[in-house]
Amino acid sequence: MKELIIFYDGPCVLCNSIILKLCKWDKNDNIRFANLDSDYAKSFFKNNPSSILDCDSIISWDSEKQYCSEAKAVFRVLKYLNGFWNLFLIFNLLPTSFSNIIYRFIAKNRYNWFGKHDICPLPEKKYAHKFL
């Protein structure tokens, strides 16, 4: 399976918590991460432009399927995790518009519910290789 790159909101406490969990759960070491504000992300987006980059969302990218955002990106991540996580792909049967409404509601409220870091925290040393 090709590598999946997840671009995420670095200052978001919820996003960082999820990214840390994904580092632990990615047993096949196929997922890489980049803060949306990082030099890597800015350069990557310049070389791989898309209108999807304008949304306030997690964005995933792989060389075969290109960009995904919102709920679709979450389902792609679950697919990469494999095993037990594939059980949650049943929710992918819901209409995308419905899944995205739920995603957007959480995204809109993430700072109020979970908070925001002043700067993107550094990853744990053992996971540093996963961050671009």
The succession of helices and strands, N to C, reads EHEHEEHH
Sketch the major β-sheet: 4 strands, mixed
Structural class: alpha+beta
What's the number of domains?
1
- Specify the number of helices: 4
Number of strands: 4
Relative helix content: 40-55%
Portion in strands:
5-15%
Q: What is the general shape?
A: globular
Rg from C-alpha positions? 14 Å
Distance between the termini: 19 Å
In quaternary terms, these chains amount to single chain
The residue-averaged pLDDT reads: 87
Uncertain runs:
none
Q: Looking across the biggest beta sheet, what order are the strands in?
A: 2-1-3-4
Give a topology summary.
Elements: E1 4-8, H1 13-25, E2 31-35, H2 39-47, E3 59-62, E4 66-69, H3 70-81, H4 96-114
Describe the structure.
- The longest helix is centred in the C-terminal third of the chain and has 19 residues, at 96-114.
- It contains four helices and four strands; from the N terminus they run βαβαββαα.
- The chain is 40% helix and 14% strand.
- The protein has one domain (4-130).
- The chain has 132 residues and is an alpha+beta fold.
- It starts with a strand and ends in an 18-residue tail after the last helix.
